[in-house]
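Hello K.,

You asked for the raw outputs rather than the summary table, so here they are, unedited. I folded two proteins back to back in the same session to keep the settings identical. This is the first:
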Amino acid sequence: MKNKVKTGLLLTLFLIYCIALQYLSNYIFDAFIVLVGVIAVNEFANMQTKSGYPGYKFSAEGIFILMFLALILGVIFGLSAINILFIEFAILGLSYLFIFGLSALVFKKKVEKDEFRKITNMSTTEFSFFKTNNSFMSVLYPAVFFIFLGFLNHIQNLGFTTFNENTSGVPMGLFGVVLLFAICSLTDTFAMIFGTLIGGKKLCPSISPKKTISGAVSGIVGGTIGSIASYLIFSAIFKTAFATIYFWQFLIIGLVVSAIAEVGDLFESYSKRRANVKDSGDFFRSHGGVLDRLDSIVFNIPVIFISLLFIFG
């Protein structure tokens, strides 16, 4: 229990640090997203390799950096969200074709001899798909989700006219980050504390033996409290922008996001179990890696982004 409390405090401090950076400057927060994103992508790529699905080293990290750079340049030059998304998809497609062609060359030259002995029955095409798909697993998760964190950070600079009119004077990027972290951190904290205190039937013992149904339910309660608290605080400060926004909307967001947070936690547990590792990395030393701490947050980044557009748009 003592270690769980320490982990919870560490995560809380980390999230407060993230919020402070976003408050100071969107671009400072961008740099932080890139740093954390590269570490997270590297952690997942390493787990994929240990699971028997090796991609090209640092390929996913490189694609992530390229995509995030395109996002920042799009914001600086005033491109709309649709145009930026088109560029992002173009980068993904061209990157896939490039790695696929590279894989064919590697196969023919038999550069990766140790790995080549394991796949001697593969044709050139099969090997190319094998390596390319493995490399892109770490792009689809978690890289693309961290790209959406950049979109959330710059939500008011993406050409959503009606959205900007309805949220005039409100730092919506900050609100989105606060809402995301409040829901997910309280989901984790309530699940950890009350799951340990109450105990009971296991949620999914084959994937995560320590997680209980009582913890999952408590986590959803905690996440919903985080959502409502964020709404109440910002609506009290920015009354005009929140005048037509209703309490029940954030009640639903809290329920949905906290439930998805539980799924993200289980997905990370499954990934670690498949790779036969205790932690995704050692960024936080004895407290594990970046994905260990942000597993409940990653899946919810686009959910919060879309929810804000839907509510305020």
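The second followed immediately with the same parameters:
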Amino acid sequence: MNQIIIHVDMDAFYASVEIRDNPALRGKPLIIGSLPHERGVVATCSYEARKYGVHSAMNIKDAYRLCPGGIYMHPNFDKYRAVSGRLHDIWNTYASASETIALDEAYLDVTETAQTWETACEFARAIKRRTLDELHLTCSVGVAYSKTAAKTASEEKKPNGYFEIPTKEAFVDLIIDRPVQVLYTVGKKTDEKLNRAGIRTVRNIQERPADVVRMFGRQGQWIVQQALGEDNRRVTSYRPEDAKSISRELTFQKDVDDYDFLRDVLFLLALSVERRASRVGLCGEGVSLKITYADMKSITRSRQTRSTRSAPVIYQEAVSLLEQVRHLPVRLIGTGIYHLSGESGRQLSFDDFLPDAAESEKRQTDAQLKRLGSRYGLNFADNLDKIFHGETLYKTVEYMRKHR
């Protein structure tokens, strides 16, 4: 049996959730992300804001220039994650395998559960209906023979869309005279390079496959395959251990040249990484440090360590890496672990056999939190759980920056 795949994509997810919860926002240009006076970017925006040219990942200053009358809000990720969990619970009831792409997006393999194309289309309509009825949100859904075609189908009638692409021939007929960026692997730079070579449409790719491969190598081969409607990839359910890294980073509202303060921030970031890794039962065999300087130049440093998710260990390694970089004003700092493995698969180190190793790390954490609390006048010990929810960590660090 040929594959039957459904792609589900929520419509302006964060903005739609906020509008649902506050109907006074309906019909207004809503921008979720940073506030106009802050550093940052647009996370998403309502369709009314998009009419002004605002889009995701746009610098917030540019968004404000385009839409000064918009309503600007910080994202509430705890709320969005809770809604996302309910969404995926609905979607997953129809699939034998579900590949989560983001909080608001997934591929669903319904080949076995639906058995026929007609039933798969009924599933897709049921997903749209239940998403609206149970969560009062709209989604766009595509049904197709492949992942590439399913994603194209869900984009075809956005927002609140529904579209079917049953065959390779139907997919090619749909896109053949469209610009090359209709293929989702063709980004802005690839598009520009293809255009300079006179390859502007999908038809041009089909006519000049050798040129595309010569320019882009393996990526070019994949672009050609997509242009021909060929995609045999399977829907692969996400597993936490498939992640390549777990990290946390923060952008400061004003550049920071106080490296003692940066060390304090690194400890809170290390605690956040520890908590995320603990939730999914993963450890890392390397620690990374990321810095973006005031001139927007970014650097990443890393080193291998014993398998760990311990905040004190992550912190010590990150601070050691910090000492090795240029001490210039910093715009963003982050740390994380990589080379991940589950508890059962990791190699034990000498420290694992020390009976009080965990207690020692807890004492180190408590002592560091007490020191930070004394320095900044904050009660970290009693409020730690709250600090790592939503944007509270960001607000806490900004408070620390102003009161250091």
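The first strand starts at residue 5 and ends at 10.

Happy to rerun anything if the numbers look odd on your end.

Regards,
P.
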